[in-house]
């Protein structure tokens, strides 16, 4: 082996080890987060004795915070503490939040602060973990695609295992044990980081030095913490940032305490988002406007999926808790059982099963010159979502007892395939059609849009609210699922009418790109 080959092999080995550290902590972070999500709705209804109305609104407010706070985490990672420190702060905050949830059954005053701490910590963790992956594989697009594929699989593996495990722990040992297990997952991830994280830090430091030599000192933003020289200055800045984060936590808790404040924040966010889109469109070059307008339309279309997705954590979980049998049978044979929270695991399982099939179909269609535009894929996705709610509507409407759990498999499987065709395209839409100079802004705006969609989904789920004793619940779910099916049919009709217009915009965008190819710097 030549020196050059040895150097390349050493570099690839170091890169794999650095990526393994990020992927491991991401897997355990998703293990804790999705485990908490699978337990939370049942915990609020069965242990805290909250009304459906309060559960739905709180889930909507929490979803909005979870999707909007990563903007703060990204800014803090890029310009404040740095990517790695901000990610670790988020991991420790998540672990503390799950611990507070475990205490909330006996001390309900800490319940809302625990939820907002989890939302804030998720906002600190998520954007910075992804940024570390991009930095590890910077300059190697093919390897980056493969790395993000593995990264996405780690998310689904962690979420599937936890969504099956945590509801079982909740049923067998109590919700406190399940929440502590979520915190334990973060502890395992942080322990692995403590042992192996040094290799990742050294690798990233070497890459930063190499980037500065090649491109100069302005190749990437330098966080404030790194600009300071001296422990006193750094310590003062660190304390100031920590106090600011604590103030954000207090503010988010105050907002979540008041449904009226949540609505006000949603309205302000919606108005701000529209103004941002208008401002960016007016400032855009004439050649950029077709792609930008198409990105707006398609992002708004993907946002509608969140209204349906939010049913998984609200109405579908409550439906499963009250009106669905957990016993899977094949003829006279009893196979296994699932609890209400465990049904949510059907979503990531279906996503993992369908993703490679869908990717193969995309490649095959493209090779034959028949690649469908994103608008057509989104339309097909909503047709599948509508089919899922048709399945639930018919099953609930014709049930004389508990609904078969196989209905949940069929519904979740169909809806998850629809997810891959709708919200799964969201990030790709921004990357494909938005001007590169504003893609980061529009990516943050997309997450904010999805957060608004989750809140709207909770309002829709609230239409099926039932009394605390669950009396007459099935009729409410029948009406809700019927309404969601009909709403999806109407949405598909609107998307079909818009399809010729979005095709023309796509054609104009392609023509402009041919005239002026995009250069990557």
Automatic annotation (TrEMBL):
It is found in: Cell membrane. The chain crosses the membrane at residues 31-50, 56-76, 88-105, 111-129, 150-169, 175-195, 235-254, 260-280, 292-309, 345-362, 374-394, 406-431, 438-457, 477-501. Gene3D superfamilies: MFS general substrate transporter like domains. It is a multi-pass membrane protein. The keyword Metal-binding does not apply. PANTHER family: PROTON-DEPENDENT OLIGOPEPTIDE FAMILY TRANSPORT PROTEIN, RESISTANCE PROTEIN MDTM, PUTATIVE-RELATED-RELATED. This is Peptide MFS transporter. It comes from Bombella dulcis.
